[in-house]
Amino acid sequence: MSISQCLLPKVGCFFFICTMITENSAIRQQVATELNLSTQQISAVEKLLSEGATVPFIARYRKEVTGSLDEVQIAAIRDRLEQLEELRKRKEFVLKSIEEQEKLTPELRKKIEGVVLLSEVEDLYLPYKPKRKTRATIAKEKGLEPLAMRLLEQEGFSVDKEAAQFISSEKGVASIDEALAGARDIIAETINEHAETRQEIRNVFKKTAVITAKVYPGKETEGQKYRDYFEWTEPLSQAPSHRILAIRRAEAEQILSLDISPDEEQANDRIQRRWVKSGNAAGNQVSMAAKDCFKRLMKPSLETEFRLESKERADVEAIRIFAENVRQLLMSAPMGQKRTLAIDPGFRTGCKVVCLDAQGKLIHFEAIYPHEPQRQTTQSGKTIQYLVEKFNMEAIAIGNGTAGRETEEFVKRIGLPASVPVVMVNESGASIYSASEVAREEFPDQDITVRGAVSIGRRLMDPMAELVKIDPKSIGVGQYQHDVDQKLLKSCLDDVVMRSVNGVGVEVNTASKQLLSYVSGLGPVLAQNIVDFRNQNGPFPSRSALKKVPRMGEKAFEQCAGFLRIRSAKNPLDASAVHPERYDLVNQMAKDLWCTPADLIANAEIRQKIDVKKYINGDVGLPTLKDIVAELARPGLDPRDKFEVFQYQDGIEKMSDLRPGMSLPGIVTNITAFGAFVDIGVHQDGLVHTSQLANRFVKDPNEIVKLGQKVTVRVVEVDAARKRISLSMKDETGIPTARKKQPEAETNIQDQLKKLQGKWK
User: Fold this and answer.
1) Model confidence over 675-701: pLDDT tens digits?
2) What's the pTM?
3) Residue 239 contacts residue 306 (beta carbons within 8 Å)
4) Could you give all domains of the chain from N- to C-terminal order, each with its CATH number?
5) E strand or H helix that includes residue 667
6) Which of 158, 468, 690, 734 is 20 to 30 A from 579, comparing alpha carbons?
């Protein structure tokens, strides 16, 4: 065997590796350009992710490596790299398919490798894509392709004489007209499969397409909720997410028909100008084929494409809004560990009452019947007083569903100590939880009403810890979340929940397995193992003790440790966000100042003496050192707002109590693209339309309000028949109720979702 033969496999491998490196470099450069970052940052994130690091871990503990990228930027890099990898795989498949047909030219390969959009790849592949029988393929089988090519040349010749040569009873061409019709079919398909032409008409669609909805005759009564769209037309590019999703839902319910059309005259003119080169007989045949191409082939194809594209765009916007709502709900202010009496209110079936200890453990339950028809008001009042005294209850939580306001009024009349606040709690999703496998596992011997009441009480104590047990789609926020791309929705919600949970931190000795499963590096299996180990061996005395948990390897420990808290640990750093990998560094800081880490935490004067620049080395830079010092000042600080008791307006309990012009307190319960819904305590949320949020134009309601925000609204209109309440937040000066300031890093989720819209599609 010659030396060259020995080297050939290695040389081939070398060229393959070089090609992959070149491709990956190009992908990194593209992502860097799109996200306005450096290729070094893209490479760093890619490497960390490939090593198993999570987005929260990278953002918090690898700032020097990434240049202090935040979670939104890191997730955007991850998602864009995944999209471009899918594009690369599709290109690879297309090239292989065309090559197998022996039709791949160097020029075509270069075109395919150079495009950056999936639609462009598909346009180039279209002429070579295996297809079922079409009018054009049938015409080709009849031998009419040479005639079609002759017509496309549009030279001066007798079209009829040329077509007559293709008449053949054997091939099924009976006349000149049949021959020309078949040739036009071939020309129409040729035009339709021409990449540049499709792109030109696609641009016409982008600029001029309108979406039109019409009600099906006889569906007017059945589709009343869609009556605004019975005769609806607007530019597709301007149609908002909620409108597109509403019309598509109505189409699926066979209430409305939906059409997307461009300026057809302009589209036809573009095709004619590109393909018709002469006014002779051959040119007339090409012109007829071009018109047929647009009407029969290109318009339906591109309409389908734009239906999908507009749906994807609507999905991304709806998911953005929904995910932001979920994030805000998860980050709602917790009341904290207080002994809580929780009531799941009801009329005929009574109110289920539970007593929870400060850790949320069920210690007592029973039912009371303060309302009609039983109306055991006195006895029920005595029961509540007895339970508050016996179990030393520190707060009362009442679900805001049926009989909620009536139960609140009843409890307030009992005469409980002023130190025991009565708080209305949004119970959306509590019934879903109470019937879930999670609830059955927690309370196998209790019925769903007890479980629901427990959920209401725990939601007051710590909204995040309880809400992670419920499917986010069932917690009463967002818009059209059941209509959007469920895979994309789940991916985004997982990111949001993980980001929120890790941003707050989790007390490992009290957390449920559901909450633990969202901690960086854990997941359901390790979360269950932690709970099982804790149940068998008692509370974890330190973070290092977590290494004894089955399947807790070094990598998993590295990823999760900084986000887990052990507030009773001997080492005070175990209760902070300082990662165990930096304990030696903190110990050195303390040693240099002749103190202990506990002294650094307790004494601000000592902390001020820390010279952070002294501790910079190859692994640790200023970003990490500043984080450590900030954490020593406020170890394990909960970033959520401080809890405040909210009170509805007394005497306003149902829609019939409302009058236009009334000024009422309320809580923002849902934010959509068209406005914010506010609970004013009448069992029906009112809508503050975007036009009523401020005296200026409001593009995104999140600019003005946040979920759970306490606001003052004015009643504009009450439509009892349709159960609609119109509200306004404008006051005499046009200045809306002040929104709460949110951490800037937590308001950027829309950036991540916009990246998911799919530039590659």
Assistant:
1) 899 999 888 899 999 889 887 887 788
2) 0.80
3) no
4) 19-128 (1.10.10.650), 135-325 (1.10.3500.10), 340-461 (3.30.420.140), 655-739 (2.40.50.140)
5) strand 663-672
6) 468
